[in-house]
Structures are given as C-alpha cells and as structure tokens.
Amino acid sequence: MSNLLFIGGLGGPEILLIFFAILLLFGGKKIPELMRGVGKGIREFNSARSTIEEELKQGMKEVEGKKKEEDKSKS
Length: 75
What we know:
With 75 residues, this protein is mainly alpha-helical. The protein has a domain at 28-75. Helices cover 84% and strands 0% of the residues. The protein contains one helix and no strands. It is elongated and about 70 Å long. The N and C termini lie far apart (47 Å). The model has no long low-confidence stretch (mean pLDDT 84).
C-alpha cells in the first residue's frame, strides 16, 4: 500500500495525460487485450491469495488442536 501513496497527488490532467500516453503506445486495438491480461493477472493473484489464506487458517487450526490435545494429556 505504501508504494501507491504517490497516486494521491494525481489530478485530472495528469490522469488524462497518462491515459493519452497509453493510447499512443498501445493503440486503440491493443488496449482491450491489455486490460484482459491485467484482469486475468488480478484474478490469478486473488486466487493465489485465497489459497494461501486457507492454508494458513488450516495450519493454525491444526496447531490449536495439537495444543489442546497436549493440555488434555497433561491433565
């Protein structure tokens, strides 16, 4: 998040200039293809993030279960 702090300083003219530069670099026909690629990358990132979160949650549950078993065996 900290690497995106500079975006707060962008106003309307700057955003239009960036959009115009992208349009010149990629052309009108390539922009939809570029956006599809960006969307696919975002979906893959979110899928990987969800998988990692689930694995972490499962690992934490296993650790908690082992601690409870150890506590019961000590009693």
